[in-house]
Write a structure and sequence with these properties.
The complex is a heterotrimer of chains A (327), B (315) and C (331). With 327 residues, chain A is an alpha/beta fold. Chain A has eleven helices and twelve strands. In chain A, α3 packs across α4. The two termini of chain A are 22 Å apart. Chain B is built from eleven helices and two strands. Chain B has a two-stranded antiparallel sheet. In chain B, a hairpin with a 2-residue loop joins β1 and β2. With 331 residues, chain C is α/β, with parallel strands linked by helices. In chain C, β7, α8 and β8 form a beta-alpha-beta unit. The chains are: A alpha/beta (327), B mainly alpha (315), C alpha/beta (331). Chains in contact: A-B, A-C, B-C. The interface between A and B is large, with 43 and 29 residues.
């Protein structure tokens, strides 16, 4: 097996909660990501799914070094993200990029499209002259399907889908190897989602990109991803090849999650037996002891409350964190 | 059958249906609807022309020419605004005084803006201990009685700076002192506002995107965040001009501000209090001009605030 | 069980917004009807007019800049558009209730949940305060909020997103309305919470026997909930059908395109998603011709000239299209 492009080892991110009037004291922590480990191979699309509070967005940002890690490490193309500084860090920033969820907030409203897309070129000093940069921007605009005549317009003049394309062009400017896509289509209409997803796939084929696709839409994740990881309350509960996960989910949370996804097929919907979870997602400030899912789990036993389950292989390429799943 | 473009992969998007309005257009349109702001703008233009254009009709020498025989004359054809305690024509003095008052307003506001932005940006962006330190300092400054400081500093420094020669005119060194003192005591308001803007803007996704690109901090501060804080800075700077003019008037009225031979609307009031009832023209005209300029700047500021408010979606 | 009795009929509803940037043609002649106990889903993407239509029905549109230009909304022999505001106040909350996407902004953050519930009851029913309180507890129980009695004294922010939506539902159902209009009530919720709310609503509907209009953009949710579906685009209804018919046999190119753009969680990936070319319509222009023509793969010359009328093709299945999508030729 080849060396993976991205390797995450026990990545943890806690946000301290401060309190106090004159002197800030740390009174607790939001344990947003609590020790996750996985690899991503070159050219692969790994999906990361979970509901609100599961830590997937924080995981994506932390692994790129946008948040300092509380512990653990990330290696991208053999460079350690959290230990790099200066020129090494800039190398990582060139190779690993991000696409954001909100097309309205992820572009500077006072900058032209040209300025936005060429920023990586300027910051990394990738092109000699302004006209070289302009040429590259035009190339990128064409690559993402936008009209080059709109180079000097402002973000508010574009629709949501078009802004998302601008964000993609910006991410591609420095010729990255790896892109973290943080819910890139959640804020878009259904008909535009398909456009953007098709574009992302075309770019992956054309440029040999590797993606981490963070999302909550399980149907879209099945469509675009090669492997899928499921997160719950800061920990990873299952990871498998795409079809393996959807057809043979082993973790009770994954099963409940898949059972809750509405299908655009009335007969199937009527015939379905759903596993409805009770209660709400607990807070990441005080996660439950042992297995974090045990308060809502339909098959929990005493051991689940006391002991944190091991992250283990249950089939080739299929890992689960659950006491009750046999290999 | 498709009559629209032949799209190999249905990926192309059609023309941007852009509104014909840029951000500047939108701002101008909103401003236009604020009648008081337009009125304020007109009055300001008038006052500006009065002070700087008026210099073409009246020389400074004439403004400073004393003539004890003609002292304390009521407004007449020869002296439309009357004469002061040493016989100088008040109309002429308001023209030249206006120049100084306006210049003091503009430059003091400039100093205020520069210092306020610098401190607010650094405190807001870096947060933590730097923020705490800078904010404690800012709050300390806010709590000081600025007028008192103005008076004390002015009294102490004004005599020490020599007169300056600009464009053939002799300007008292006290003007420079006043400009700096006003600027250096009024920045805290702007610093707090800029800091608040930075605190909220730095959490926005486009800033995270800039960090993901590898953009260095100083570029993020000055090229990314600062342009997005134009609205409150402009509004505050505008009001800062009015504030500077009033502050100068206060201090000069008390005799601690701008010294002779330079006239300002403020120091023209200096001796007027003894003649409040007997020679109303001594305080009426300069006072009216001060009120007029302060009010019109405030109206303008109001209009700008509404026009630049990004939350206001209507045009 | 459902009666075959039509109790709501909307005829040619048109709503426009007069803004400084121009007139927004939000709803352009919408007609549909609803039977007792039926669940009608209204599907479309943002800007299609689905929310504005329902808000117009209940006269919740802000009158400047909005204006209901024409149309009739016949609710049990009364035209809601012709009632006075105080007569409408007797309808809203009591006969027709509405819940929205974001319960945080629909609930008053400074009042307790109990107070908001009892207020609705006091306004619309002759019950005294104690009876109202009892009923409020029953309602919270009914929507699945544990420890209802004590939760009456909590404020909205003390509930999670899913719980708040349940409280909204409780408030909406407090006076047992005949019709519940739900505007994207689960869009902002996690998928497991969404499943909980949908189960709840289905159960309540059966208990109470009320009709429901469910506005959404999610064709998966529609498949699981609706009896009938209308699809909207640019302020027009482009297709109307019983739910099985819509998914088995979509007649309008837009409906077809939407279904083909959907990925499936229950199937292996077969091919690329078929995206719809072009961008959403500009509502600032008076509609000429079929609004979907610029993006339609079946477009004909007639489509650009003439806006097709919603016509019934087979039993209960209507479409507004000149083209027969099976053959590709004009009907």
């Amino acid at each position: 097996m080849n060396e993976p492009l991205v390797r995450v080892e026990n990545l943890t991110k806690h946000f301290p909660i401060r309190s106090g009037v004159i002197i800030d004291r740390v009174v607790g922590a939001v344990r947003a990501v609590d020790g996750i480990s996985f690899d991503i191979q070159k050219g692969e699309t790994l999906g990361m799914v979970g509901e609100s509070g599961c830590g997937k967005t924080t995981a994506g940002r932390t692994l790129l070094g946008l948040y300092p890690a509380t512990s653990g490490r990330t290696l991208i193309d053999n460079l350690s993200v959290h230990e790099s500084k200066g020129a090494d860090l800039m190398k990582i920033r060139r190779k690993a990029q991000m696409i954001f969820q909100d097309p309205y907030a992820s572009l500077n409203p006072r900058w032209t499209v040209n300025a936005i897309i060429s920023e990586p070129l300027r910051v990394h000093k990738l092109m000699g002259s302004k006209s070289d940069r302009d040429d590259r921007v035009k190339e990128l605009l064409e690559l993402v399907g936008l009209n080059v005549r709109h180079m000097n317009r402002f973000p508010h003049e574009f629709s949501g889908g078009q802004r998302q394309r601008i964000g993609i062009a910006r991410a591609l400017a420095s010729d990255p190897l790896f892109i973290v896509c943080d819910e890139p289509i959640s804020a878009l209409d259904v008909s535009i989602q398909a456009q953007v997803v098709n574009l992302l796939e075309k770019l992956q084929d054309q440029l040999g990109l590797t993606y981490l696709f963070v999302a909550h839409d399980l149907s879209m994740v099945r469509h675009i991803c090669d492997r899928v990881a499921v997160m719950y309350l800061g920990v990873m509960v299952e990871i498998a090849e795409r079809d393996d996960l959807y057809e043979r989910p082993r973790h009770p949370y994954t099963q409940a999650l898949l059972s809750a996804v509405p299908l655009p097929d009335p007969r199937k919907e009527r015939a379905r037996q759903r596993t409805i979870l009770t209660g709400d997602v607990p807070s990441p400030i005080n996660p439950p002891t042992g297995c974090r899912f045990h308060p809502r789990c339909p098959i929990a036993v005493d051991r689940c409350k006391a002991e944190v389950p091991e992250w283990k292989d249950v089939a080739p390429g299929h890992k689960v964190a659950c006491h009750l799943v046999e290999s | 059958m498709t009559t629209t473009q032949n799209l190999p992969d249905q990926l192309l998007v059609t023309e941007v249906e852009s509104p014909p309005l840029t951000l500047a257009d939108l701002t101008w349109r909103r401003f236009r609807r604020h009648k008081m702001a337009i009125f304020g703008a007109f009055v300001l233009v008038f006052l500006f022309l009065y002070s700087f254009g008026g210099a073409f009709f009246v020389t400074e020498k004439y403004a400073n020419k004393t003539n004890t025989k003609e002292r304390l004359q009521a407004p007449s054809a020869a002296h439309p605004f009357g004469t002061d305690t040493v016989g100088r024509d008040i109309l002429a003095r308001t023209i030249y005084g206006g120049q100084i008052s306006i210049v003091i307003g503009l430059t003091a506001a400039f100093v205020e803006v520069m210092v306020g932005i610098l401190i607010g940006a650094i405190a807001g962006y870096f947060g933590g201990k730097i923020d705490s330190l800078l904010m404690r300092f800012t709050e300390a400054m806010l709590n000081m009685p600025t007028l008192l400081i103005l008076i004390i500093m002015s009294k102490f420094f004004s005599d020490k700076i020599a007169n300056v020669n600009i464009l053939g005119r002799t300007i008292s060194g006290s003007v420079i002192v006043i400009i700096f003192i006003i600027g250096l005591t009024s920045w805290p308001y702007l610093a707090r506002i800029v800091r608040a803007e930075f605190l909220s803007l730095k959490e926005r996704e486009f800033i995270l995107a800039a960090r993901a690109t590898g953009t260095p901090n100083w570029e993020i501060i000055f090229k990314h965040i600062l342009p997005n804080t134009i609205a409150p800075v402009v509004v505050n700077a505008t009001l800062g001009v009015a504030n500077a003019i009033s502050s100068e008037a206060y201090v000069s009225f008390l005799g601690m501000g701008v010294r002779a031979p330079t006239a300002t609307w403020g120091n023209m009031l200096e001796n007027a209090y003894r003649y409040i009832e007997t020679a109303y023209w001594l305080w009426l005209f300069p006072g009216l001009l001060i009120v007029l300029i302060t009010l019109s700047i405030n109206f303008l500021g109001d209009g700008l605030r509404d026009a630049l408010d990004p939350r206001s979606r209507t045009v | 069980m459902t009666d075959n009795h039509t109790f709501l009929e909307v005829k040619d509803l048109k709503t426009r917004f007069h803004t400084p940037e121009g007139t927004v043609f939000a709803v352009n002649g919408v007609s549909f009807s609803l039977k007792e106990g039926e669940t009608l889903a209204v599907v479309g993407e943002s800007g299609c007019g689905k929310s504005v239509t329902m808000m117009s029905l209940l006269r919740l549109i802000s009158i400047p800049p909005g204006k209901i230009e024409c149309g009739e909304v016949i609710y049990r022999d009364k035209d809601l558009l012709k009632l006075t505001e105080s007569e409408m106040e007797h309808i809203r909350g009591k006969e027709i209730a509405m819940i929205f996407q974001d319960p945080m902004t629909s609930l008053n953050p400074v009042l307790t949940v109990g107070r908001q519930l009892t207020e609705t009851l006091r306004t619309h029913t002759p019950m005294n305060p104690d009876q109202c309180r009892e009923r409020a507890i029953t309602l919270l129980d009914w929507v699945g909020i544990p420890d209802a009695k004590n939760r009456l004294n909590d404020h909205p922010h003390q509930f999670s997103g899913g719980m708040r939506q349940r409280v909204m539902i409780a408030m909406a159902l407090a006076c047992t309305p005949s019709l519940l209009i739900a505007d994207e009530p689960t869009t902002a919720l996690d998928v497991t919470i969404q499943a909980q709310i949908i189960e709840l609503v289905k159960r309540l509907k059966q208990d109470v026997g009320m009709a429901m209009i469910w506005i959404t953009h999610d064709l998966g949710v529609v498949a699981g909930m609706a009896d009938r579906v209308i699809v909207m685009y640019a302020g027009f209804i482009v297709e109307e059908a019983l739910v099985d018919d819509l998914y088995d046999n979509p007649l309008h190119p837009y409906t077809m395109a939407l279904l083909q753009a959907l990925p499936r969680a229950d199937r292996r990936r077969e091919k690329n998603l078929k995206s719809i070319q072009g961008s959403p319509p500009n509502l600032l222009a008076e509609p000429v011709g079929c609004p979907f023509a610029p993006r339609c793969e079946f477009v004909k010359e007639r489509c650009v000239r003439e806006n097709p009328i919603l016509t019934e093709i087979t039993g209960g299945h209507k479409t507004a299209c000149w083209v027969d999508v099976k053959t590709g030729g004009l009907r």
